[in-house]
Amino acid sequence: MCRHPLRTFARGLAYGRIADALEGAVPVTDYQPSHFPYSRRRRFDQLSQHPVGLIALGDSIASFNPMYGQGMTVAAQQAALLRQCLDAGEAELARRFFAAAATATDTPWDITVANDLRQPHVEGQRSPQVRLITWYIGNLHMATAQRAN
Known about the structure:
The protein is mainly alpha-helical. It has 5 helices and 2 strands, in the order H-H-E-E-H-H-H. The protein has helices spanning 5-11, 17-22, 71-87, 93-116, 128-148, and strands at residues 40-41, 62-63. Strands 1-2 form a two-stranded antiparallel sheet. Helix 3 runs antiparallel to helix 4. The longest helix has 24 residues, at 93-116.
């Protein structure tokens, strides 16, 4: 019998592999609730002037809902882009870096926003782009779940 709430939840999913994997597992800690209020993106690439000697990186540019696991990847990509920009010289470093970082952030950001907007209680405009991404992600989830079984 499933007494742990996570196992009970997993048994209610359409595919049983997650619940099977949890059988016999013992929680290491109590639940750790997430208090993440919302995703936030700051458009440093749209500033007309940048402070000399200051570069924002990672969550300072875009903080993602941790459920999607994109924040660390985007921050690592930004760090690699910063290295490339530094290697090219210091002239207009901030402008070049923030333009490159914005491009690297765009797609993960669009996916995060669209995924959040899949939830009916989340406020926001559901543009044609958002509807396309949510349709695609929904079908991707269904395809991977079916393929796993």
